[in-house]
Predict the structure.
Amino acid sequence: MTGPGKLPARDFEEIRLAEALERGRCPVCDARQEASYAALRGLAREGATDRGLRDQMDKGLGFCQPHSAGLSKMELLQTSSQLATAVLLDAVLRRRLATMKKHAGKDGSGQVRGIAELSDIRCPVCARMTEASDAAARRLLELSSDGAWSAALGSAEICLEDVYALWAAAAGASKDVQGRWSQILAAQLKRLEALQKTLAEYAHNSTSDRRSLITPEQQAAAAASIRLFGGSPDRDRTR
């Protein structure tokens, strides 16, 4: 089995990773986004009636800000309603209110502990995204034993956060993986050094008397730097 381009792939997960690399996207960002989409879709369909999820909410499970909004968007897309979202957020709010009331009358240190408890959101969508990110990093490092995958990882527009994630995963892996990663990292550092140089040229030419000197490559570097720090998944599937 092969992906849509030249990278060999044995299953659908590898096809998705290959497609992301071949289309200039960060493959770990893509995996994280796909996990978020799948989790939100399941919650919007069945979360309000899932007893296990409701039990977890009674014990403190909640939703972060982005995924509270994402759940609402997903339900609107699927049902043109926000009933399930309201039911789930009601369960979260009831738990949070009880905790707030419990700690509101305590002394300063008790209130600090209460705020820390409230700040531990334990968002199930975030948890799924973390699992997907870790799994994608492990799979990519395994695939780097193939020369084509190793070359693709060295030249890919992997976002900076996920370069760190791959690096951390490689550091805890076997000597073979560490050796392959050192070559991939060297290629990534060359790519980033070239990007930084072009960004500096873009900044130098940005004054009013030199704007005519800005090249398409410099403008492209500015867009690439945003992807480097902001991530580059396929698209926001919940919109």
